[in-house]
Amino acid sequence: MRKNHLVYALLLLFLTFPTDGAARSLTDSIGRANEIPDKVDRVICSGSGCLRLLTYLQAQDRIVAVDDIEARRRKFDARPYAIANPQFKEMPIFGQFRGHDNPELILTLEKQPQVILKTYSAMGHDPQELQDKTGIPVVVLNYGDLGKNLPEMYRSLRIMAKVVGKEQRAEDIINYMDGLIRDLSLRTGDVPGQERSTVYVGGVAFRGPHGFQSTEPAYPPFTFVNAINLAYEAGEAGKSMTQSDIAKEKIVEWDPDVLFLDLSTLQMGDDAGGLYELRNDPAYRMLTAVKEGRVYGLLPYNWYTQNFGSILANAYFIGTILYPERFADVDPQAKADEIYSFLVGKPVFKDMDAQFKGMAYKPVPVN
């Protein structure tokens, strides 16, 4: 029955799919050449972070359906692009999150996408198979990051921009991000080594919430403000550039000058997670930063992959804590809203902070 339905849907698509003008060739992030229409007004975004990038490009009005993560209503949501666009929750669904697309659902959408944009192509539905089953070109994009894969992220923005005709906006985003990264470096690049604080961030999410031992050895905000990230200094970055679990004994041995808590850990509830551990675990209670109240809340780093706006906003807040005189002109909350307004079109800091018990960019009550 499912095969018959798919054949019927393909036939229906063949008979009714509108003419979209002359085709042009476009090469995606993994070197696949696709023929796409000259003008693209209808797309879907498959995979973690794909719709985030489209929103940055101010082209979110082109989507005709969403994956099922957008329709979920949960207590916690740290995706600025989704908070700024509540209409996503009411849109048709084309498949499951993390790229698990449903070709039959795609083919039965009332408005047919002209292009499928896809990040993390190794997860979920194979892009070539998806293209073969739907007859719709699939453009693969490497999501990248704000670290060593920053050029890949910029390249993907430019490819996506070519699809939807937003080339100038892509350049504006790249210039804006480069400007922030450069500003952070100029503020902190010449801080003498003996004046740099040792730091650790715990509770970093990775495909769900984790406790205080979960960290990001190459945590970009620390890199941007030239802080001494003990997890990186200890060589943990060589094990995992995205997430590592650090032994509790190692954290106690390090005894960092300043601790930061990724507030995504609050999803674990009142009786678990990083905040609970800092308040109740005797080992963590020994830490000098816990005793002296130098523990600060950060907006979640990973939430349906990396939140670039939150990463940059976190860096400015961290700068105000580690080098207050060098960031005396920065209001971290206002800076966050400046970044969100530019990237997703709305100031959403208060909305996110409210979800995380008002602890973002403040000392976390651990005593």
CATH topology of the largest domain: Rossmann fold
Round the mean pLDDT to the nearest integer and report it. Answer: 91
Which structural class do the helices and strands define? alpha/beta
Strand count, sense and barrel status of the largest sheet are: 4 strands, parallel
CATH architecture of the largest domain: 3-Layer(aba) Sandwich
Terminus-to-terminus distance? 61 Å
- The main sheet orders its strands as 11-9-13-14
The H-and-E topology, N to C, reads as: HEEEHEHEEHEHEHHEEHEHEHEHHHEHHH
- What percentage of residues falls in helices of 4 or more residues? 25-40%
Segments where pLDDT lies below 50 for 5+ residues?
A: 1-5, 7-19
CATH top level of the largest domain is: Alpha Beta
Total DSSP helices: 16
CATH superfamily of the largest domain: Nitrogenase molybdenum iron protein domain
Give an overview in words.
This protein has helices spanning 2-16, 50-56, 80-83, 103-107, 127-134, 150-164, 167-188, 220-224, 230-233, 248-254, 273-280, 282-285, 288-291, 308-322, 332-344, 349-355; strands spanning 23-27, 33-37, 43-46, 66-67, 93-96, 100-101, 115-119, 138-141, 198-202, 214-215, 228-229, 244-245, 258-262, 295-298. It folds into two domains: 2-168, Rossmann fold (3-Layer(aba) Sandwich), CATH 3.40.50; 189-355, Rossmann fold (3-Layer(aba) Sandwich), CATH 3.40.50. Strands 11-9-13-14 form a four-stranded parallel sheet. A three-stranded parallel sheet has the order 3-7-8, sandwiched between helices. With 367 residues, the chain is of the alpha/beta class. The termini are far apart. 39% of the residues lie in helices and 14% in strands.
